[in-house]
């Protein structure tokens, strides 16, 4: 009976203040993407599992990433996933996570090229294509690289690699294979060179969202990590990557 009472109290605590939440995301397979007219992926499964545990109702919407970040910075009961947590973004949101660690790396599109061993070499070996909106683009600019080929989307980046108009691309190790396949580029044609960044990926709630709601989501995520369900979702969605 005591155990039942504890479980009942836990259930009531999680569901007494159930909320309607707007969850925004972009296209970034295998984390979140459209398949058969439905939004799917690792991040989608995570937020749906968290909502089920907290009793909240969520409304998923796919938007361009920068627009989603802007909305989630100002609208109550709104969050965007999955977001790399940086010093510049830290005070703009309330954070739930990390969901996973993400490594961003440099890949060559030509196996005959000499391997790159440092950023200094990367700055002299050919054009590096990547979206201008990505954090890694700003990071490489700050490192003094002047051979960056800025594009609008990751699809454009992979298209340039497939056509032989870019010597290198930048992508995280989780999504690089899926991004390549979407543009008809065999993932095996991309060759890992050097790591560039490694950061945690989070759900970013607006500052206007009730902090108690955010705390309930963090608690639910911690429990998913402890009971192994978060790891099972990683195994389902993130097991196919391009090897180093």
Automatic annotation (TrEMBL):
SMART domains given in the database record: PBPb (SM00062)
Cited Pfam families: SBP_bac_3
Keyword Signal carried by entry: yes
Residue ranges annotated for the Solute-binding protein family 3/N-terminal domain, each copy included: 20-241
Signal sequence segment: 1-18
Keywords recorded for this protein, A-Z: Signal
InterPro entries, sorted: Solute-binding_3/MltF_N
PANTHER family in the record: PERIPLASMIC SUBSTRATE BINDING PROTEIN FAMILY 3, SOLUTE-BINDING PROTEIN FAMILY 3_N-TERMINAL DOMAIN-CONTAINING PROTEIN
Protein name per Swiss-Prot or TrEMBL: Solute-binding protein family 3/N-terminal domain-containing protein
Organism: Pseudomonas fluorescens
Taxon lineage: Bacteria, Pseudomonadati, Pseudomonadota, Gammaproteobacteria, Pseudomonadales
């Amino acid at each position: 009976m005591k155990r039942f009472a504890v479980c009942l109290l836990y259930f009531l605590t999680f569901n007494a203040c159930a909320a309607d939440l707007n969850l925004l995301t972009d296209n970034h397979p295998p984390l979140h993407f459209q398949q058969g007219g439905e939004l799917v992926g690792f991040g989608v499964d995570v937020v749906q599992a968290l909502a089920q545990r907290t009793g909240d109702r969520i409304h998923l919407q796919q938007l361009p990433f920068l627009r989603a970040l802007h909305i989630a910075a100002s609208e109550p009961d709104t969050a965007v996933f999955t977001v790399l947590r940086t010093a510049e973004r830290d005070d703009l949101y309330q954070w739930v996570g990390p969901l996973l660690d993400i490594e961003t790396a440099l890949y060559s599109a030509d196996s005959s090229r000499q391997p790159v061993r440092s950023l200094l070499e990367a700055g002299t070996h050919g054009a590096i294509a990547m979206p201008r909106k990505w954090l890694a683009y700003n990071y490489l600019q700050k490192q003094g690289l002047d051979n960056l080929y800025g594009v609008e989307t990751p699809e454009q980046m992979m298209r340039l690699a497939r056509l032989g108009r870019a010597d290198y691309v930048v992508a995280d190790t989780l999504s690089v294979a899926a991004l390549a396949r979407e543009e008809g580029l065999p993932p095996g044609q991309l060759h890992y060179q050097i790591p560039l960044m490694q950061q945690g990926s989070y759900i970013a709630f607006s500052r206007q969202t009730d902090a108690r709601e955010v705390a309930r989501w963090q608690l639910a995520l911690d429990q998913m990590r402890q009971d192994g369900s978060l790891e099972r979702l990683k195994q389902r969605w993130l097991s196919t990557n391009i090897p180093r």
